[in-house]
Amino acid sequence: MQNKYEKNIQINNKDALIIIDIQNDFIPGGTLAVNEGDLIIDDINNLAKKFKDNKAIIVLTQDWHPKNHLSFASNHEGKKPGDEYISKNGAIGPVLWPDHCVQGTNGAKFHKDLNTQLANKIIQKGIRHKVDSYSGFRDNDKKTETGLRKYLNSKNIQRIFICGLALDYCCYYTAMDGLEFGYEVYFIDRLTRGVDLPEGNINNALSNMKKLGIKFADIDSFR
Ligand SMILES: [Zn+2]
To answer: Which residue in 14, 26, 118, 138 could disulfide with 165, CB within 3.0 to 4.6 Å?
Structure first.
């Protein structure tokens, strides 16, 4: 694990910190709680402050589903959360989830400890009934974008730094899309937590990102 993290990164106005889905349902006590999801919030706030002080952009993503969303096991007869399910076009799956982050509910709200005042932009995703969106950039069918790329490009952003929940789903897919869209991508893995569903998913996500050239940063990687 030695020397894994980049060092001496000088944050500038072409950088964006993308904070993924720090919402009540993903925090212990929520319907799709990520283990220890609450433990990363203070450090995310501190890092966001540093980005803000260095004129970088802060983006929050928010999972924001209609209540009949097809990623929910409850909307499929005989299925339960964690069951494998892949829709034809890949828009839903590879597993089904408990009901979570339903538009307008408390579970969909950002956690009270997250400093949302620092955000320049909020991107909502998963808003269409038949399509999920793990990535902050676009839906799982890879057809419809959320507006994140357009926003980042309007601000001339070149490097993106990813943290939040969950490591092996929304953070991972956001990082991979970021790479495909030409950004220099940094994954702040200690400011994420994963669901590891199916088992081994976290390690697969991490090794895939390394292999493809995504860089890793830690809290003390910044000047
Ligand atoms: Zn969701």
So the answer is: 26
